[in-house]
Design goal:
- The complex is a heterodimer.
- Chain A contains 17 helices and 19 strands.
- By secondary structure, chain A is an alpha+beta fold.
- Among the domains of chain A are: 134 residues, Flavocytochrome C3, Chain A, domain 1, CATH 3.90.700.10; 122 residues, Fumarate reductase/succinate dehydrogenase flavoprotein-like, C-terminal domain (Methane Monooxygenase Hydroxylase, Chain G, domain 1, Up-down Bundle).
- In chain A, α5 crosses α12.
- The longest helix of chain A has 25 residues.
- Chain B is α+β, with helices and mostly antiparallel strands.
- Chain B folds into 2 domains: 112 residues, Beta-grasp domain (Ubiquitin-like (UB roll), Roll); 139 residues, Fumarate Reductase Iron-sulfur Protein, Chain B, domain 2 (Orthogonal Bundle), CATH 1.10.1060.10.
- Chain B contains 9 helices and 7 strands; from the N terminus they run ββαβββββαααααααα.
- Chain B starts with a strand and ends with a helix.
């Protein structure tokens, strides 16, 4: 199937202005007749729900947490990029665009990325107007910090809690609209199915997590703002509830899933300490502004870090990437840590860790300055590990953090399935094969505040509002399907817990489809995943019933979807016979271990269609055209 | 790393209207590096293996920021560690042989959903009653057109650090939500962006708080002591002052005029 990205014609810098001019309008009176369903209440979801309600649309917003404020955007620590050039250090929209395209290893769409850079400045204005307490200088102006993959200082931040503050800003806008009656909010309510009628998206099926009631909701369009699929690895920095269910169910209804193999492994997380572990904790990348990453030069060096003299330490990022040093992008820093550990030079339990050392920064700026910059992160580190990073270096190791792949969308953020829009991390559009730090918050808010309010009308004008209600047979059928699926899960009554399957799947996917992948390993994973899925459907046990609060049942539905999705993830990773960004195939590397892209054969987005057979998805290609930038080897040396 | 053997006494309640009771649960061989919630995971896995219903508890991010985890541990919301959420509390803070009491946050405005899970939607409704600046998405002025002194911005950030977990309510003998409301109203009321709606916001949030059934503040500051984000009691004082002024403005000039500039 040909994929039309609907990128507007004309010069790159004019595309978004032109598109805004060309987009359809709906008069305010008619907007009220349209119902917009928003699934997810993170940055993208809350921002979209609030902004669309302000415009006059009737919005229904759903989240599985007990309050929209808990969405996982809240955990983002470091900051948000914007091309404000407040620092007078040569930043511009073009430079942010270029850094993002290059950071994504030339696997993102030029048009989308330029738009993202363009609206980035508006986001900061919007958030400040809402009362988001960004860090400021003594003169009252906004402060900036540097982040990986950039040589300018363009990151705005609110201590180490930027995601929290931006989300609370969007949540406050959402609350304003709930109070005005523009948004109807459904908390503790999980989407379990997408409903399509004659090929158009017309609603969803949800389960009320408190009462267990399964319900249908009809709308004129559905926005999925449901985040990424990092929890397919079980251990990740995602919240426990993050899942692929909404996007996967949409995929099974016809939406293409693009580039699932682009997963981001974050270099600075607290290492795994035991098999009881339920999640991995991120230490913000901003720490690399002042921390120096090193490993002992000697293999198996078990001395206390302070007993290892300077000349026996390998500051490998500074050595390998002198111009970016400790601020090399995430994929590169992660692989470098893995290399050091694979070489037997890792530190801490199991030798899976490297040091992030603040001794020099503390000496230079004083402990108080460092405490002011990163105090909450140092405290968190101490609570988890029992060690103080003021006194000895942190131990860090890479962990799954973000997923660049997601449902395929065009320039209007609409998937190939008419009426289904996908925003934020849930779509695939802006980060290519690797996302730069402080860009996720930017994308979530750009999509929600500034893109969808313009582009949604292009679809809605083609629809008669409220033409389909939940009385339609498709809704009845979907309701029955979901009830049947729930009953089937509950009736297995096997021997193994849901978590035990999730753990096993996670270990397998991390091992074979994690930081370094091979055709052989992926093939092995593709043999094991269906077997594990079969066992799940025959041997999982879920206590309790479906018509009450039942957390095991919630998890079971999500793990069932991960067990299907994992297969597509590995198929995509095996088909992409190149290394790029977060996708590193060991067969494709330069002699110095850097990723080797194959631009001739793989300059496309792989958008997979569901065929009914997990092993045989249909590959659709969107060729990526680069009109503005020249494809180059991504070098941070 | 060593392992602990513990005795848990956990509140079990099958639904909002059911009668609850403490259940004794053995928790043996718990790694001291595990978090409190990971200890609960281990206990739950063992219960599932025996065909029993696991203990329901709220949790999500497990890094101390989403505010979803709750639990009163040995009588203290989020347990004994200062400035620490339950998910960030680690078992190395306990000793083998300890008995640990685990209960839900208790307050009339936080009805129990199941076991340790409570309904905190009252907090959302308080925010909807004024916890925002009425500004449309669009093109506001340039962010740096409004200078805000570092001390003002830092103070607002101190208040904004609230994660909305509800520990302050659970810690208070009157189940007062003054610290929670004070933090949000205080953040916006101290910033220039929040001035135009200050009166309306303060009255709206405080009245909604009363309506939800939260109790009165008697200035004992258990809330401050239990707050995982160390929100300071001075926000309660500021809320009281803002409320007094707002109520006076309302009485003298009326709310409609007050919020439109008083002309």
């Amino acid at each position: 199937m040909p994929l039309d990205s609907k990128i507007p014609s004309g010069p790159l810098a004019d595309k978004w202005s032109k598109h805004k001019q060309d987009s359809k309008l709906i008069n305010p009176k008619n907007k009220r007749k349209f119902t917009v369903i928003v699934v997810g209440s993170g940055l993208a979801g809350s921002a979209a729900a609030a902004s669309l309600a302000e415009l006059g649309y009737k919005v229904k917003c759903f989240c599985f947490q007990d309050s929209p404020r808990r969405a996982h955007s809240i955990a983002a620590q470091g900051g948000i990029n914007a091309a404000k050039n407040y620092q007078n250090d040569g930043d511009s929209t073009y430079r942010l665009f270029y850094d993002t395209i290059k950071g994504g290893d030339f696997r993102a769409r030029e048009g989308n990325v330029y738009r993202l850079a363009e609206v980035s400045a508006n986001i900061i204005d919007q958030c400040v107007a809402q009362g988001v307490p960004f860090a400021r200088e003594y003169g009252g102006m906004l402060a900036n910090r540097s982040f990986g993959g950039a040589q300018v200082s363009r990151t705005f931040y609110a201590r180490g809690q930027t995601g929290q503050q931006l989300l609370l800003g969007a949540y406050s806008a959402l609350n304003k609209e709930i109070a005005n009656g523009g948004v109807q909010m459904y908390s503790r309510c999980e989407m379990l199915e997408l409903v399509t009628v004659d090929g158009h998206t017309k609603g969803i099926i949800t389960r009320d997590l408190v009462t267990g009631k399964v319900e249908a909701h009809a709308g004129d369009t559905v926005l999925l703002c449901t985040g990424g699929y990092g929890n397919v690895f079980y251990l990740s920095t995602n919240a426990m509830g993050c899942n692929v269910t909404a996007t996967w169910r949409a995929h099974k209804k016809g939406a293409f899933f693009a580039n699932p193999c682009y997963t981001q492994i974050h270099p600075t997380c607290i290492p795994v300490s035991g098999d009881y572990q339920s999640k991995l904790t991120l230490m913000s990348e901003s720490l690399r502004n002042d921390g120096r990453v090193w490993a002992p030069k000697k293999q198996g060096d078990t001395r206390h870090p302070k007993d290892i003299p300077e000349d026996e330490r390998d500051y490998y990022l500074e050595r390998k990437y002198p111009s970016f040093g400790n601020l090399a992008p995430r994929d590169i820093s992660s692989r470098a840590a893995k290399e050091a550990c694979d070489d037997g030079r890792g530190v801490g339990p199991g030798g899976r860790g490297v040091y992030l050392d603040f001794a020099e920064a503390i000496q230079q700026f004083g402990e108080n300055t460092i405490r002011e910059r990163y105090g909450n992160l140092f405290d968190m580190y101490e609570r988890i590990t029992g060690e103080s990073a003021y006194k000895q270096p942190m131990r860090i190791y890479p962990a799954v953090h973000y997923t660049m792949g997601g449902l395929w969308v065009d320039y209007n953020l609409m998937s190939n399935l008419p009426g289904l829009h996908v925003l934020g991390e849930a779509n695939f559009s802006d980060h290519g094969a690797n996302r730069l730090g402080a860009s996720a918050l930017m994308q979530g808010l750009a999509d929600g505040y500034f893109v969808i309010p313009t582009t949604i009308a292009n679809y809605l004008v083609t629809q008669k509002p409220g033409s389909i209600t939940t009385d339609h047979p498709e809704f009845k059928k979907a309701l029955e399907d979901i009830k049947a699926k729930t009953n089937r899960l509950l009736s297995i009554k096997g021997k193994r817990s849901v978590d035990s399957f999730h753990r096993e799947l996670g270990l397998l996917v991390w091992d074979k489809c994690g930081m370094a992948r091979t055709r052989e390993g992926l093939t092995e994973a593709l043999e094991k995943i269906p077997a594990l899925r079969d066992e799940f459907w025959n041997n999982v046990t879920i206590p309790g019933s479906g018509d009450a609060f039942n957390q095991e049942l919630e998890k079971a539905g999500r793990v069932a979807d991960f067990l299907e999705f994992a297969e597509l993830l590995c198929i995509d990773a095996r088909h992409r016979e190149e290394s790029c960004g977060g996708h590193f195939r060991s067969e494709y590397q330069y002699e110095d271990g850097e990723a080797k892209r194959d631009d001739e054969n793989f300059t496309y987005a792989a958008a997979w269609g569901y065929t009914g057979d997990f092993a045989q998805p249909e590959l659709n290609k969107e060729e990526l055209k680069f009109e503005e930038v020249h494809l180059a080897v991504r070098s941070y040396k | 790393m060593s392992n602990l053997n513990l005795q848990l006494k956990v509140w079990r309640q099958s639904s909002a209207n059911a009668k609850g009771t403490f259940q004794e649960i053995e928790a043996r061989d718990i790694p001291d590096h595990a978090s409190f919630l990971e200890m609960m995971d281990i206990v739950n896995e063992r219960m599932i293996a025996k065909g029993e219903e696991p203990v329901a508890f709220d949790h999500d991010c497990r890094e101390g920021i989403c505010g979803m985890c709750s639990m009163v541990i040995n009588g203290v919301p989020h347990g004994p560690e200062k400035a620490t959420t339950t998910c960030q509390l680690h078992m190395r803070k306990f000793k083998t042989g300890d008995t640990i009491w685990v209960e839900p946050f208790r307050a009339r405005a936080f009805p129990v959903v199941k076991d340790l899970v409570v309904d905190r939607s009252a907090f959302d409704r308080i925010q909807q009653a004024g916890g925002f600046v009425t500004v449309r998405t669009g093109a506001p002025q340039d962010a740096n057109a409004l200078p805000i002194g570092k001390d003002v911005a830092d103070a607002a950030m101190d208040a904004a650090a609230c994660i909305g977990c509800g520990a302050c309510v659970a810690a208070c003998k009157n189940a007062s939500a003054m610290l929670y409301v004070g933090a949000k109203a205080g953040q916006l009321n101290s910033l220039p962006q929040g001035q135009p709606e200050k009166t309306r916001r303060t009255l709206g949030m405080v009245r909604q708080m009363d309506k939800e059934g939260f109790g009165n503040c008697t200035n004992q500051y258990e809330c401050e002591a239990s707050c995982p984000k160390e929100i300071k009691r001075n926000w309660i004082g500021k809320l009281n002052r803002d409320y007094a002024v707002s109520a006076a403005v309302e009485a003298v000039v009326g709310l409609g005029n007050a919020s439109s500039g008083g002309d």
